[in-house]
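#onboarding

Welcome to the new folks! Below is a worked example of what a typical request in this channel looks like: someone posts a single protein sequence, and someone else replies with the predicted structure as tokens. Don't worry about understanding the tokens yet, we'll cover that in week two.

Example request:
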Amino acid sequence: MIRLLITLLLAALAVFAQFEAAAPLLPGWRGTSVSWPVLLGWQALAAFAAALCFACCMPGKSRRYRREVFVHAFCLSLFLPVAGQILFLCMVLAPAIFPGDGRGAESQALEAPRFIPSLASHVSYGTGARLRVRLNNRSALDDDRVGAMVAMRSLPLNVTGGMLHDLLSDPLEEIRLLAYGIPNAAENLIMQRILAVSRRRDMAATDGEKSLLSSELAELHWELIHQNLAQGELRRHALERVERYARSALALDENNAAMWYLLGRCALLDGRPQQAEVFLEHAQVRRFPAQRLLPWLAEAAFMQREYSRIGPIIEPLRDGILPPALQASVRYWTT
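Example response:
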């Protein structure tokens, strides 16, 4: 009730001040003459009162919204005498006269996110760098170095593989045993999965099932290479197996973009950039994720010494979220 009374008083003040500002300018005015500073003062008062009135008309809105309404109404009323107030009044009354569709969009209330302290211990940043420092510090306590080695089991082998290989010559026996046992356990796990999937593939009855299992075998053999678990002749054998199973899967389903991608990666490792580019383009046509594909297309162009092509190839990645090392490469070739 008080808000309504204040709004009506402000509206009356705005009308009175606007009359005092506009009436002396009308032709045939017989009242006393008024100077321009006084007229401008009345106009500013009218605009201020009208703006406050319009801002008070919206009690359900936020303070920021009402503040923006006040600024717009004041400017409109100040520079458009009479017409400004009428125009803004029409804008305020239009939703009430012509209400919109009352049906709201389908939505569901969600609880506000809560901090869960028990998860804080699972979040770590720079773990690999800290573990490397602890392991390389030969003057540290043996228990601390062994603890760092045990913690390294949680990191991916494609990151720690080179470090584990270097630690095979560590003077501490526990470190040497763990450096050998961690990749060996991962390799045994992958080999067991390869044997199981191979038996399922031999018993598969349909082409779809054979294609799916061949893809899985290609990816498992690729894991041996990706995690640095295969060296020397074993690496060559794993690479040949990846190509064999990938081609088998594509013979049954040529739209398998992941297998085209693996063939491209194998060709790059084997030093065949032109063939790799063909395979990767097949994967690109079949909408393989660009963030994983384009860097290797750029690698194929680099191996062919076609440096002018690298920038346009990886330009789409410039605005994406990339690993730090890839960010530096994209920035270098696109600027």
